[in-house]
Amino acid sequence: MPLNREEGLRRLEAFTKSGLAAYAARRNSDLGPDHHHEVVSLLSPYLSRRLLVESECIRAALAAFPQDVVSKWIDEVIWRIYWRGWLEHRPTVWREYVYALEQLQKHGDKEKALDERALYDHALYDRAIRGKSGIACFDAWADELRTHGYLHNHARMWFASIWIYTLRLPWQLGAQFFLRHLIDGDPAVNTLSWRWVAGLHTQGKRYVATAENIKRCTDGRVTVRERLATDSEAASVSHLAFSLDPKPVASTGEVDNEVDNKAIDLTKETTLIVHADDLYLEGSELKEAKVRQIIAIDPSELSQTLQLSPLVTDALTQAVTDGAARAKAHFGAPLVWAKVGAIMEHVERDQQLICMKPHRGYWSDALSRVNAQVDLRYARRGMDTALYPHATKGFFQFRGAAWAQNFGMEA
User: Fold this and answer.
1) Which range marks the domain in which residue 61 is found?
2) Residue 296 forms beta bridges with which residues?
3) What is the arithmetic mean of pLDDT over 7-20?
4) What is the mean pLDDT of residues 238-247?
């Protein structure tokens, strides 16, 4: 699929007209890779890069139908904001995930990874990511993910459950496999969803896939003949050993203090950085900035480091190219491309350097290296600023606040 804003807007309009009204009733059905567009919006790749922003999707839904018809889809849209806000409150969760991956990859299956319980079968892991686990539905989903860069949300949960409880592989490696192959890969959504399946997000509550549920939600398309782990067996799996800290993670009570939109002087000549986390800059808090030059971050460096699939790498390149081109047209400033480590070669010593705040994850890690060399100033979208403070606990508390505040959107 073309990953640019124009295509995202076209898909939003088409979904609003032909799929939105039936979404609540049909969204849980996984009809397979050739029919996903019949029941879901397929807008997640555009939202994950903010080629589309949540507010315009919500407005489009409420303009087309009564609230009770579209509330379920709007809930799904704001889940992404919730996950991102929740992780902003708990940066240690992201750091532990990255550290755990480093340890698991360093030691493999014959060495100690995180502790004595956290060994994993490297040969089984290799078969699982190649779609050779021996569990037919799981292998089909692995193939679908690698081929299409997408899985239905239910299939993602089933896959993660089988990975953790039946194959007994570390959840971090499964989350990494998803991020390498999902075109809509979002570090917060992906990491926290895997933790939720593993029972680490809501203590004592885990997601265990069953053959009955898979058959029902695929309209009988998938019949599981292999034995899957039961709920009682899942409870005994030492999956908590795959976490450095299986205890509940407390909120810091506040979102990081790196962001202060007022600290950005919109009248001062500025260098604007374009990154893949937020690509609708002409519709952002920076739209009135006096931009002297634009630096677009080449995603190839990150793609190589993370071993992203060619599909994901191509999608990232398309998205950043589109966002950078629109920014160039909007601000009327020259555009240069640079890798993260070379950004400073294009910035004058006294130049104000600004960008939209990247979400907790790989892009924020990368840009933190720039911030260590220069005063890089971040702007955060008003919707995030309004809603993140409510993402300290569960989703339903967050949901209530979001609806009550009109999702942080200006009237």
Assistant:
1) 5-88
2) 274, 337
3) 95
4) 49
